[in-house]
Amino acid sequence: MITPEGLEALNAELRQLEGEGRREIAERIKTAREWGDLKENSEYHDAKNDQAHLETKIAKLREKISNAVLVKAEASTEGEVGFNSTVVVCDEHGAEHTWQLVSSHDASPAQGKLSIESPVARALLGRKAGESAAVALPRGERVLRIISTR
Asked: Please, are residues 135 and 141 in contact by the beta-carbon 8 Å criterion?
């Protein structure tokens, strides 16, 4: 699942890699070839290796884009926690956290964006303000009470 913004970011990254990224690698290969014997030319081999990594990354991005399922960037109208919801929770220690549930590509926990596939997000999905959810984490179970969702 991905939002229209997330899909545009993937397309922009693909355009950059296919354009500027490929041009940079081609220039490095050309320069290294001019230095002589290719058998012992580490710059040439490094550039060819980087080219292979770039092409692999491009192929993976193309696959991700072709398999993307576009989802409206709207939270549930019933007040339930869902894809792209912003949810405010309180843990058992009284600490408040605000998270937006996004695709795995858009996830950035430091910015308050949790992957919809994360254990915390899965525990919160379908719940409403006032409900609690138990989340099994490596350090033990954590209970989160939903304060609000939008």
From this structure: yes
d(CA 20, CA 40): 28
Q: Are 10 and 68 in contact (CB under 8 A)?
A: yes
- Residue-level pLDDT at 75: 47
Question: Residue range 116-138: average pLDDT?
Answer: 89
Backbone angles phi, psi at 129, to 5 degrees: -55, 135
pLDDT score recorded for residue 76: 52
3-state secondary structure of 94: coil
Residue ranges of domains in the chain, CATH in brackets: 4-67 (1.10.287.180), 86-149 (3.10.50.30)
Burial of 97-123, coded b for 16+ CB within 10 Å and e otherwise, reads eebbbbbeebbeeeeebbbbebebbeb
**Average pLDDT of the segment spanning 35-51:** 88
Q: Whole-model pTM?
A: 0.65
